UniProtKB/TrEMBL annotation, chains A, B:
Gene3D superfamilies: Hotdog Thioesterase, Winged helix-like DNA-binding domain superfamily/Winged helix DNA-binding domain. NCBIfam families: PRK04424.1. GO terms for molecular function: DNA binding; DNA-binding transcription factor activity. One of its GO terms (biological process) is negative regulation of fatty acid biosynthetic process. Keywords: DNA-binding, Fatty acid biosynthesis, Fatty acid metabolism, Lipid biosynthesis, Lipid metabolism, Repressor, Transcription, Transcription regulation. Belongs to the FapR family. Residues 115-154 form the Thioesterase domain. Pfam families: 4HBT (PF03061), HTH_DeoR (PF08220). This is Transcription factor FapR. It comes from the Bacteria. Residues 8-44 form the HTH deoR-type domain. It comes from Planococcus glaciei. InterPro entries: DeoR_HTH, HotDog_dom_sf, Thioestr_dom, Transcription_factor_FapR, WH-like_DNA-bd_sf, WH_DNA-bd_sf.
Amino acid sequence: MRKPKKERQRALTESINDNPFVTDDELSTKFDVSVQTIRLDRMELGIPELRERIKHVAVKTFEDEVKSLPIDEVIGEIIDIELDERAISIFDVKPEHVFQRNQIARGHHLFAQANSLAVAVMNDELALTVKSELQFLRPVTAGQRVVAKAQVVDRNPEKNRAYVKVVSSVDLATVFIGTFEMYRMTEQSEGDEK
Amino acid sequence: MRKPKKERQRALTESINDNPFVTDDELSTKFDVSVQTIRLDRMELGIPELRERIKHVAVKTFEDEVKSLPIDEVIGEIIDIELDERAISIFDVKPEHVFQRNQIARGHHLFAQANSLAVAVMNDELALTVKSELQFLRPVTAGQRVVAKAQVVDRNPEKNRAYVKVVSSVDLATVFIGTFEMYRMTEQSEGDEK
DNA sequence: CCGCTATTAGCACTTGGTACTAATATGAGT
DNA sequence: ACTCATATTAGTACCAAGTGCTAATAGCGG
């Protein structure tokens, strides 16, 4: 026997895990057993066939892509918006957003949500942030949902500036406050949302 | 004829593009032509079969995953660091970091680089950002390399605070300035809000 | 009616499997 | 050594979603 069954199955799981694209045939050569043995192993371990494995990976990507496209331009999901006035977005903090050590969300994600919202609330796709002041009041952890509310507090049409205040909260407790001085890039605004 | 060939092929490309998981059979039903016609179309258009399409998507994800893991904890690459004193990181602005409309880098990426660097320069893995003031002085575009320099400017050990100033520049021109009030979590600080 | 393109049909073959049955090995217990 | 159980191997039929190839037919313009 080349390897005890248990050990082979462990190694098999590992192999497939770090290269899902490997066929039963390749595996049978690698472990020097028959293809059937590999298949029995996969069945016992509940590992699907190559095509299904690939499909899963692909579906995951595809969903991610679909999901990340809207996210691309706005971090968090906008649930309410009144152009030039106010907007609200929610952002679910996931494990990838936090420091591994303490599970606290990294500041730039809160900033990204708030800044995106500030850009979005401007009636101008080409708005840029000029200045900003931030306060991180309470740490946010994975699993929490951050609700950001943006309000346009002031405007200065001559200078093409607008001032936006964003307050983010988790369960009604404020966790973050940001003020943003925004610059409008379009020419003089004639009046209506396009 | 249900549709001119050209139009069908255009629609076919589109269909496959926004759902790569569709089979020839499904497509033949959809366009009300035979499977063979669909296959001829794919050949003319150079569109690979379903399995190959799925594989491509999967391979892409797989590579992306491997690539994105190391980037996880620090945005930008730290090229020099003296703990509690100063640090330098570089960040290459790529197409995914900019607004599609005007190719200008989204503010949160510059913030993320600066904030990450501020966290890193603290001799404390668990540092948190408390307050921050930002100035976006000049727009940064895709293809440019942003060099961020962080400097610890002040400390307040009793309050577990430190103040970090980060200046980011492209080709020696300052594009961004941020000041960060950081909170150290280590030491024996008992008053930790969870 | 000829010629041309477009479409459809049919068959053999390919990959990477599943499902199932049956034979053989191997080792442990008694 | 004999027996039983588990492990392994072999072999067959079948499937999905194709490719590759040949051949037939449809539709239309001139």
